[in-house]
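Today's session is about reading a structure prediction critically. Students often jump straight to the picture, but the first step is always the sequence itself: look for stretches that repeat, for charged clusters, for runs of hydrophobic residues. Only then move on to the predicted structure, which in these notes is written as discrete structure tokens rather than atom positions. Here is the chain we will use throughout the hour.
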Amino acid sequence: DDQPLSITIGLPAPPDITTTSPLPDGTAGQLYSQQVQALGGFGNLTWGISAGALPPGLDIDPNTGVISGTPSGSIAVTYNFTVQVTDTVPQSDTQAISITINP
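Below is the predicted structure for this chain, in token form.
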């Protein structure tokens, strides 16, 4: 005997970037490290920059969300960029962030 069957699958909450802008200032020639945080999401989170660019000398770790490196520059400049995090579903979130690098 055949019976109709339905299954409802609820997706987990998408990741939500909780880090707010601006990040702490950096100084040219000095090591910089700051972690971008997110809550929620499913499985592994992957981090990247979806718009704009990090200050020269800084990169974001795709596995941890840590922005680090040794920035360069001879004048104070504020860099604006958008961080994106994506889970394995894939669901994503973005956050506009800025960092000022001082000489």
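Discussion point for the tutorial: The two ends are 77 Å apart (CA to CA).
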